[in-house]
Amino acid sequence: MKKRILMLFVFALTLQMQAQTNTGNTEKLPRVTILATGGTIAGAGESETKAAYTAGTVPVDILLNAVPQIHELAKISGEQIAQIGSQDMSVEVWLKLAKRINRIFEEDSADAVVITHGTDTMEETGTFLDLTVMFDKPVVLVGAMRPSTAMSQDGNKNLLDAVMVAADPASQGKGVLVAMNGLVFDARDVTKTVTTSTSTFQSRNFGPIGLIYDGKVNFYYQSTRNPSQKFDVSKATSLPQVEIIYGYADASPVPVDALIKTKVKGIVYAGMGNGNFNAPVGKALERASKEGIVVCRSNRTGAGRTTLYNEVDDAALGFVVADDLNPQKARILLMLSLMETSNRTSIQNNFFKY
Ligand code: SIN
Question: Who contacts 202 (Cβ-Cβ below 8 Å, separation ≥6)?
Fold first, then answer.
């Protein structure tokens, strides 16, 4: 009996010492602000087993309380920036996010930021923030493919991983990152590749740059293409209009001509193969270029570079190429570039630098 009481006493003492150690460590933990925007990670459905759900319904405080382990990794604060499915992501929310993150780092109110986001346009938000956050502190995007109410939901683990990446000093200076499904990606390169799978995020050209496993982050690669030149959006309230046109066999020039009439500032052409077009679309894009619209050739293949002067005489037509950016990422760089210049050589340089 005495032995049992003694053991209980030692156990209680150990717990108390552990609690004290944890409290002491709390002071030293990095400060991570979580900016919530909605998406499936904040989605709720009526059944644990059915696929139907509504994105962006669970507010940030409930999201954070669902993963108590994040509080052991960082001093967490949360803010609701938006509560939308990311198919409704907009330039307005991007500007709000970029301004908020820059302010957080300027005021030194956090050491890192995690953004909870829908997966549909996460790659676009990541690219936008990569180009507009002026600090090299960690910014990590995270989402989920299954809503928080699903039996095998992936959001809680992804959120824990994202906070782990954000809190890791090795994440500094790597540009904006995406943490999904145990992998870390450079936001510049990552893309959503499958409609419903939890392993949907891939960097088709270069692969993930790190792995998250057993409570640790290990980085293996770092891009040399992260922007040396950032875009200052502190005063911006909108961006120049750039639209995307998709290439396909027997495509007509109707969409290009409609955009010329709309007086857009830029067109990204998601061409076939190496950014190719048929003759009628080529003529329409040439008309657009002559009207002062910057035409950027990207491609619909999902990987690889769109290269200058292969089958298209870009110099003669006044076109620029997207290099390895897919159409939706090229659109973002073109909008930001057009905010500063319409000089095609400078814009092309931006594509080769980023
Ligand atoms: C969304 O992008 O908001 C819906 C899909 C998702 O988050 O997985």
Answer: 185, 190, 191, 193
Same domain for 133 and 48? yes
Instruction: For residues 203 and 102, state if they share a domain.
Output: yes
C-alpha 15 – ligand 1 centre gap (Å): 41
40 part of the active site? yes
Residues 57 and 206 in one domain: yes
C-alpha span between 77 and 60 (Å, rounded): 10
> How far is the centre of ligand 1, averaged over its atoms, from the C-alpha of 38 (Å)?
8
Tell me the pLDDT of the chain (354 aa) as tens digits.
445 544 444 444 444 444 444 444 567 999 999 999 999 998 888 888 888 888 888 999 999 999 999 999 999 999 999 999 999 999 999 999 999 999 999 999 999 999 999 999 999 999 999 999 999 999 999 999 999 889 999 999 999 999 999 999 999 999 999 999 999 999 999 999 999 999 999 999 999 999 999 999 999 999 888 667 899 999 999 999 999 999 999 999 999 999 999 999 999 999 999 999 999 999 999 999 999 999 999 999 999 999 998 899 999 999 999 999 999 999 999 999 999 999 999 999 999 999
**Closest ligand 1 atom to the C-alpha of 56?**
3
Q: Cα separation of 350 and 208, whole Å?
A: 24
